[in-house]
Amino acid sequence: MVETVCGLITSALAAGEGVLLCITEAHQQRVEAQLQSHGLDLRHARRRGQYVVLLTGDTLAQILDGNLPVAQRFEAVVGRAVSELAQKWPRVQAFGELVAVLCQAGNRQAAYQLEELWNGLITRYPLALLCAYPIKHFSVQDGGVTVSQICGCHTRVIPAESYSRLESADDKLLAVATLQQQALALESEIAARKQTESELAGFLENAMEGLHKIEPDGKIIWANDAELKLLGYASEEYLGRNIADFHVDPPVIEDILQKLNNGREVYNCPARLRHKSGTVVHVLIHANGYYTDGQLVVARGFSRDVTESVSAERERALLAALVGSSDDAIVSKTLEGVITSWNRAAERLFGYTAQEMIGASIVRLFPDDRVDEEQEIIAKIARGEHIRHFQTLRRRKDGSLV
């Protein structure tokens, strides 16, 4: 690109034509340095008003209203520069990067409108416009529409300098064939990636566990069906809100967000979420982040519903509390007669501590003449029979019977 612009300036000045550059500051420095190394002094051309430079940053700041160019502002800045050159010189050669900068920023609509404004100047002045566009700024996913629109605003399209420097027709045909092969390979790769991305998106969307993505401040930008069903919300009710809105305990989500923003991973963090109905959903949260230059870009969270297990654990704890505080001696054992639990009432009744009895055989409590009774009880339990209350004798630690 630098060589092409240098050639345009050199030939235009030699032919007594005016030159207008709408160029980035970095490219201006490279172009003028190369011209100076070739012995061309631009200071004289500037003083004569034959060489004018408009830097893209300053120019766009003057002609844009929000994200779109304003025709009157364009005329006041670029149009005025062209008009003044056209009054002094028979023809104006212009090089423009304004559209390229807009394309780089992803502002395709403004780029296309700016091309139309340039074309308006061409119809009124003896103006020839050369533009340069880095091809990397045109997304393949656009299907070439943007490239076609931009190029369609010009009377002639020049390929990259690497192609233009090829001299023989055979070299150019070989270059075209190579590019075609590369384009086909890229299209195949893109199609394969799209297929993989589609399959992955479908897998995540239909995963059994709740999944979500949030921004560093906690704003929810995506959630799968399982997450929405877990909390009873429709997508439009959930997305866009802050994840903290759904947490019962603010310190928990604050700690999670702080860890993620500090580059740490969250694993199996217990949390309570608020269902749309108002009920509480118990979850375990696993979350990690995607970072650029050490800064969190997006966090991925996994919410595993453990409400049933939490409820079951509470019931077990309640049952254990009831057993432990009961005035009745309560003992549990395996079908082999090994004691697995021994409450405080059993300690008081038999004189053995839980530490002494858990893991021991229940037969320790049986008098010698009643050992067979345990075998009968175990056999009935194994058959699924219910053991009703019955009178019997058992031996305490001190040897007395109860």
What does this structure look like?
With 402 residues, this protein is α/β, with parallel strands linked by helices. The protein has four domains: 2-165, Rossmann fold, CATH 3.40.50; 167-205; 210-309, PAS domain (Beta-Lactamase), CATH 3.30.450.20; 327-402, PAS domain (Beta-Lactamase), CATH 3.30.450.20. The chain is rod-shaped. 49% of the residues lie in helices and 18% in strands. The strands form four sheets. It has a five-stranded antiparallel sheet. The chain is built from 17 helices and 13 strands. Helix 1 (2-14) packs across helix 2 (25-37) and helix 6 (98-104) runs antiparallel to helix 7 (108-124).
Oligomer: single chain
Q: Treating each run of at least 4 consecutive H or I residues as one helix, how many helices?
A: 17
Proportion of residues in β-strands: 15-25%
Give helix and strand order, one letter per element, not per position.
Answer: HEHHEHEEHEHHEHHHEEHHHEEEHEEHHH
Output the structural class. alpha/beta
